[in-house]
Design brief:
Length: 213
């Protein structure tokens, strides 16, 4: 599976569909967050799957255990490949999410990449989620190798905060695509560097080539 996940942070179905069709040679998994899901929910999931691609549903569940468990069950019915929960939901919530049968992959958010933190805090949350049966974490590029070393190769690390060069936006803990992959990321999540590019297809291709290590 290709390692780049494109964050479809756009507001409407047509834009999302155009992006999926144009970037599909370079991307296998598309991330839907609340922005798009609230606009076009199920139709977007169907469109991505009809194009032969997978969906990462990034709604960052954080609620009481029963609600999170039922949310994971609903996501399973949608046929998504993966979804996110918040590690700060705690042990009981994480275990409830993981207990759903035949479920999508679950990745837990450690600390948002727009926030400043210390690697030890990210690692503490990664270890907690692993013991609860969660498949992996979302972490910044700066903690990938530490998590892989401590939690093992099989534990997924999915990394946003990817920038092609120095950028000036809200992401604080960043790295280039090739650095993140070299550090051991299973997937990198990229939004604005592709979405806001003059030529999104060229940038998606460039990132794909840079991650063929
Ligand atoms: O535009 P950019 O490349 O910063 O997009 C990164 C994507 O990853 C956004 O959709 C953002 O919501 C998501 N994300 C993140 N940090 C996390 C979890 C998800 O930036 N910890």
């Amino acid at each position: 599976m290709k390692k780049t996940i494109l964050a479809l942070d756009v507001y409407d179905f047509q834009k999302a569909e155009k992006l999926v069709k144009e970037t599909s040679p370079y991307i296998d998994v598309y991330k839907i967050g609340p922005i798009l899901f609230l606009q076009a929910g199920k139709e977007i999931v169907k469109m991505i799957k009809d194009n032969g691609k997978e969906v990462f549903l990034d709604l960052k569940f954080h609620d009481i255990p029963t609600t999170v468990k039922r949310s994971v069950e609903s996501a399973r019915e949608l046929g998504v490949f993966s979804l996110t929960v918040h590690s700060i939901g705690g042990e009981e919530m994480l275990k409830a999410a993981a207990s759903v049968e035949n479920r999508p992959k679950i990745w837990a958010v450690t600390v948002l990449t727009s926030q400043i933190t210390i690697p030890e805090e990210v690692l503490r949350r990664a270890k907690l989620t692993k013991t609860c049966g969660i498949d992996g974490v979302i972490s910044s590029p700066l903690e990938i190798s530490l998590i892989k070393k401590e939690c093992g190769k099989e534990f997924n690390v999915v990394t946003p905060g990817i920038r092609l060069a120095k950028a000036n936006d809200d992401q604080k803990r960043v790295a280039t695509p090739e650095t993140a992959i070299k550090e051991g990321a299973d997937f990198i999540v990229i939004g604005r560097p592709i979405l806001e590019a003059e030529n999104p297809i060229e940038v998606a291709k460039n990132i794909y080539e840079r991650t063929l290590l």
